[in-house]
Design brief:
The protein has 5 helices and 5 strands, in the order βαβαβαβαβα. It is α/β, with parallel strands linked by helices. A 5-stranded parallel sheet has the order 2-1-3-4-5, with helices on one face. Helix 1 links the parallel strand 1 and strand 2. The protein is globular and about 35 Å long.
């Protein structure tokens, strides 16, 4: 992954956003992180000023106000210029239906948020190691050609 690629996090829970940022800081993550509180903000962020070109990874909560994670997945994975952006669903739900729905909609990974801080910390640290340090991701084409 481009080490300067932005990690876009959509989560309406302020405590979860704080915990994520704490783990990112502890891991020495150098990638920029952007937080949005719902799916509408996520889609608006990506479409504004060619930001999708800079987004290397999306961490997506499922149950958010205005537009939930499932709707976001439908949009992201249906548009050719957005579908290559990897999406990790990071949510409290362990429901089999939610897991299957997300993979059917094109999620690249599904992680149920652990309730223990130590396990949460280990989970996010492993996520960072895999998606940021190990994975070679495709380059997303410049957005200006696709957007009005």
């Amino acid at each position: 992954m481009n080490k300067q690629a932005t990690i876009l996090i959509a989560d309406d829970d302020a405590d979860d956003r704080f915990l994520l940022q704490s783990v990112f800081d502890d891991c020495g993550l150098v990638n920029p992180t952007v937080y949005v509180k719902d799916g509408i903000e996520l889609i608006e962020y990506i479409r504004r000023s060619n930001n999708e070109y800079l987004v290397g990874l999306i961490l997506l909560d499922l149950n958010m106000p205005k537009m939930d994670g499932r709707e976001v997945l439908k949009i992201l994975k249906s548009e050719p210029h957005l579908r290559k952006i990897p999406v990790v669903v990071l949510t409290t739900s362990k429901a089999e239906q939610d897991i299957n729905d997300c993979y059917d909609l094109g999620a690249n990974c599904y992680i149920a948020k652990p309730s223990s801080f130590d396990v949460f910390n280990d989970t996010i640290t492993t996520l960072i190691k895999f998606w940021i340090k190990l994975t070679q991701l495709p380059v997303v084409p410049e957005a200006s050609r696709f957007l009005n």
